[in-house]
Design goal:
This protein has about 475 residues and is of the alpha/beta class. The chain contains 16 helices and 13 strands.
């Protein structure tokens, strides 16, 4: 048995007097923390393992402070003696992001009252929390300063631009970084900076929002957090809604402490530029380096935010080297549906399917390629909480990415397919097919088909055609 499960089960027994009836791994995101849902008799809690003591201590202290202020955070239930394991309140599986995504076709009207509530609460966290938090526990920095800004800008350069193969003048880019840093630091720094405030870090339980993942917070400017929320790539808020929600947030902020509202309006797009750059660094590392599908999927949407800023704000024009990157990035990472249908190079047909129902029909033009069997991987479809989801859903992606065999398989598939792509392109071939099969064609095969489509689109000059055979059948019903 996983030693982390053993340790958490002992902590569960110390707290409740009985062993957990069942322990299920939860999806991983962008951190090294590992979570498990632990079931007792008619209740459940979340068990967490994190080897970073400094991060844990910040989380424990911030949680107690926020609870003392009656701000909505998960209740901390138990902590192990070595402070690497802890139990916390189970807030369920409904994130604000999932509600936003579901309501997007309705113009966000149903979810708007919740968005307003969340942004008003953010202002309370930033102002009320700033007065009482123990910043000496912040990790790795207690303040948003020059070094922390440059870390994020270099993250963008080394973890996104270079692995993506985007050419740039390094000296000129560093000049832009210096100028941008000076402008960002010319701000009011006496707020609690949540650091990773986005809708996936807000859970909704019985209609009430709860904030999570604040342990990376520090003292800093208020705009960073509201920008992180309103420009989150996958949320896809239209500009008019962003402006409306920003006004709601600033009105609440003004009610809590003295701020220059006009100046904050004017600097909003400056911080938006910085946050988009920072997130592209994270997407590059977690996606292009680690191969995690949902991060790769977010890259085109983040670049679309960068394009919008270049067209609707004067700030980006003041950084010529950054501005010159927009067109090559847009060409390399087009949004879905932007690919040229007259493409004359290599077309790669990628499919997911159910092996129980037979192999997909070979293309008449070439009939060749690869079929990969994903059935040896752990099957999320066997877990009740994942049964009705698909490989396109973040919980399934996180579940699979928490398994070491997933990364091992992905690395081998990537090496095989990229070698074939190189040979096919050198020899002038026009078609290659790659299929992923699993038992039902819903979870593992869908995950890998989507992962490979995103990976190839970001790494090589090919046209990708993607088909999820069983998902299309489900949609037709």
């Amino acid at each position: 048995m996983d030693n982390r499960v053993v340790e958490l089960s002992q902590l569960f027994k110390q707290k409740y007097g009985v062993e957990p009836q069942r322990v299920s791994p939860m999806p991983l995101s962008g951190s090294d923390r590992v979570y498990f849902r632990m079931f007792g008799d008619n209740f459940s809690v979340i068990g967490a393992y994190n080897p970073s003591l400094v991060e844990n201590r910040a989380f424990f202290s911030f949680t107690k402070t926020f609870q003392g202020l009656r701000l909505p955070v998960p209740e901390l239930l138990a902590v192990s003696a070595n402070e690497k394991y802890y139990l916390q309140q189970d807030l369920g599986d409904t994130s604000l992001l999932s509600l936003i995504t579901a309501d997007s076709p309705n113009g966000f009207e149903n979810v708007k009252p919740l968005l307003i509530n969340v942004l008003e609460l953010l202002a309370e966290f930033q102002v009320r929390g700033a007065n009482v938090l123990d910043y000496s526990l912040c990790y790795p920095k207690a303040d948003f300063d020059r070094r922390s800004v440059m870390w994020d800008l270099n993250y963008f350069k080394y973890s996104f631009l270079k692995p993506a193969g985007v050419h740039f003048n390094e000296d000129e880019l560093e000049d832009d970084f210096e100028s941008l840093t000076k402008m960002l630091l010319n701000d009011d720094m006496e707020f609690f900076l949540y650091r990773d405030f986005q809708s996936r870090n807000v859970m909704v339980t019985n209609g009430k929002p709860y904030f999570i993942d604040y342990q990376g917070g520090r003292r800093g400017p208020c705009l960073y957090d509201v920008v992180s929320f309103l420009f989150q790539a996958k949320a896809g808020f239209p500009p008019m809604l962003r402006a409306e929600l920003l006004d709601v947030y600033l009105a609440k902020l003004v009610s809590l402490r003295s701020v220059d509202k006009l100046k904050l309006w004017e600097r909003f797009h400056l911080f938006a530029l910085f946050r988009v750059i920072q997130t592209l660094g994270a997407y590059g590392f977690r996606g292009l380096f680690e191969g995690k599908a949902h991060f790769i999927q977010s890259i085109p949407m983040a670049i679309d935010n960068l394009v919008w800023l270049s067209e609707n704000s004067s700030y980006l024009h003041g950084f010529p080297s950054l501005y010159s990157l927009i067109e090559p990035l847009r060409e390399k990472f087009p949004l879905a549906g932007e690919q040229n249908h007259d493409f004359a190079g290599l077309t790669i047909d990628i499919s997911s399917f159910s092996l129980k129902k037979g192999y997909p029909q070979a293309d008449a033009q070439h009939g060749g390629g690869f079929i990969f069997d994903c059935r040896f991987l752990p099957n999320p479809g066997r877990l009740p909480e994942y049964r009705n989801l698909t490989g396109l859903d973040a919980p399934i992606q996180g579940y699979l990415e928490s398994m070491p065999e997933t990364a091992q398989f992905a690395n081998r598939v990537e090496a095989i397919v990229l070698e074939a792509v190189e040979q096919y392109q050198q020899r002038g071939f026009e078609h290659l097919s790659v299929g992923f099969g699993c038992t039902g064609g819903q979870h593992r095969s869908v995950y890998f088909a989507q992962w490979l489509a995103n990976l190839l689109s970001s790494k090589v000059n090919v046209r990708v055609k993607l088909q999820h055979v069983e998902l299309e059948k489900m949609g037709d019903k």
